[in-house]
Amino acid sequence: MLNFLFRKLLMIVPTFLGVTIITFALVHMIPGDPVAIMAGERGLSPERHAQMMAQLGLDRPLWQQYLDFLWRLMHGDLGQSLVTHNAILSEFMSRFPATLELSVCALIFAIGLGIPLGVIAGIKRGSIIDHGVMGTALTGYSMPIFWWGLLLIILFSGILGWTPVSGRLSSSFWIDTPTHFMLIDTLLSDAPGAFMDAVRHLILPAVCLGTIPLAVIARMTRSSILEVLGEDYIRTARAKGLAPWRIIAVHALRNAMIPVTTVIGLQIGLLFAGAILTETIFSWPGIGKWLIDSVSRRDYPALQGGILLIATMVMIVNLVVDLLYGLINPRIRHQAE
Amino acid sequence: MTQANAQTSPDNPTTSEIPPAPHPLREVWNDFCENRAALAGLIIIALIIVLALLAGVIAPHTPVEQFREHVLQPPFWQAGGSLSFPLGTDDVGRDVLSRILYGARLSMMIGVIVVTLSLVIGVLLGLIAGYVRGWVDTTIMRLMDIMLSIPSLLLAVVVVAVLGPGLFNAMLAIAIVYLPHYVRLTRGSVITERNRDYVVASRLAGAGPLRLMFVVILPNCLAPLIVQATLSFSNAVLDAAALGFLGLGAQPPTPEWGSMLANARQYVLDAWWVVTFPGLAILITVLAFNIMGDGLRDALDPRLKR
Question: What is the pTM for the complete model shown?
Answer without folding.
Answer: 0.86
